[in-house]
């Protein structure tokens, strides 16, 4: 193999090593979790289990969260007309940060028949990191207002987080300490999308260092052999 080919091979291996390091640093993970809601309604207690997922989209220094229900919860003994049901919920923030994010959404677009599980529309809100690190998001209390009444549904099965993000605080805050409270948002989310955090940046720098070291080593070998031949 010529000296030029050896140099190219060295650089290619180093570049691939750097890429592998970056790919090994996951930025987000999401899963559907079953939540057993115990609801206090105007006509007495009711319960329902619904699979729920929470998705995120990076937006400026924060994240737009979308909370989705795959099954209806609670019900009404009378028909609920169009626009009669107004839901909201809390997402519990854990891990490196703490607090809650309030998510809201539109009222029901069609009438809900009597004694039929109430399907909750997607609810959205915005989370702004106050701490840097791995943050979890877990479904919390659901509130439904309809026809002047209020129904509160609380998770009773200690659900697992539906979303985990590696986040970076805008001010560079460290992990731990007091938490943050999100503010309401209105845009729907999609699959988890996050920007690079401090760990990914550090690992990328490491990959770049490996690349430079490999190229420099190959160049030294080339020059040494050239000198020997002279």
What features would you describe in this structure?
By secondary structure, the protein is α+β, with helices and mostly antiparallel strands. The protein has helices spanning 3-23, 198-229; strands at residues 28-30, 33-41, 44-59, 62-69, 85-95, 99-104, 123-127, 133-146, 149-155, 163-167, 183-184. Helix 1 packs antiparallel against helix 2 (198-229). The relative contact order is 0.24.
Helix content: 10-25%
Radius of gyration: 26 Å
Q: How confident is the prediction overall: mean pLDDT? A: 74
Q: Into which percentage range does the β-strand content fall?
A: 35-45%
Structural class call reads alpha+beta
Largest sheet, if any?
A: 11 strands, antiparallel
Record field, number of beta strands:
11
* Terminal Cα span: 20 Å
Index terms:
eleven-stranded antiparallel β-sheet, single chain, 23% helix, alpha+beta, 2 helices, disordered C terminus, 230 residues, 11 strands
């Amino acid at each position: 193999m010529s000296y030029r080919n050896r140099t190219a091979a060295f650089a290619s291996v180093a570049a691939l090593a750097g890429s592998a390091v970056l790919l090994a640093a996951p930025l987000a993970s999401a899963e559907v979790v079953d939540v057993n809601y115990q609801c206090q309604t105007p006509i007495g207690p009711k319960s329902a289990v619904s699979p729920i997922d929470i998705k995120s989209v990076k937006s400026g220094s924060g994240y737009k969260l979308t909370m989705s229900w795959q099954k209806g919860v609670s019900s009404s003994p009378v028909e609920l007309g169009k626009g009669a049901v107004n839901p909201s919920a809390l997402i519990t923030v854990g891990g490196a940060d703490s607090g809650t994010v309030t998510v809201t959404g539109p009222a029901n677009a069609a009438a809900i028949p009597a004694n039929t599980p109430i399907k909750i529309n997607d609810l959205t809100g915005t989370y702004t990191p106050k701490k840097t690190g791995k943050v979890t998001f877990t479904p919390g209390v659901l509130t439904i207002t309809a026809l002047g009444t209020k129904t509160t549904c609380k998770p009773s099965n200690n659900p697992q987080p539906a979303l985990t993000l590696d986040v970076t605080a805008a001010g560079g805050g460290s992990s731990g300490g007091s938490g943050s409270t999100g503010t309401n948002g209105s845009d729907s989310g999609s699959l988890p999308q996050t920007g690079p955090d401090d760990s990914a940046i550090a690992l990328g720098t490491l990959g770049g260092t490996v690349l430079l070291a490999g190229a420099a080593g190959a160049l030294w070998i080339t020059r040494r052999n050239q000198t020997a031949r002279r």
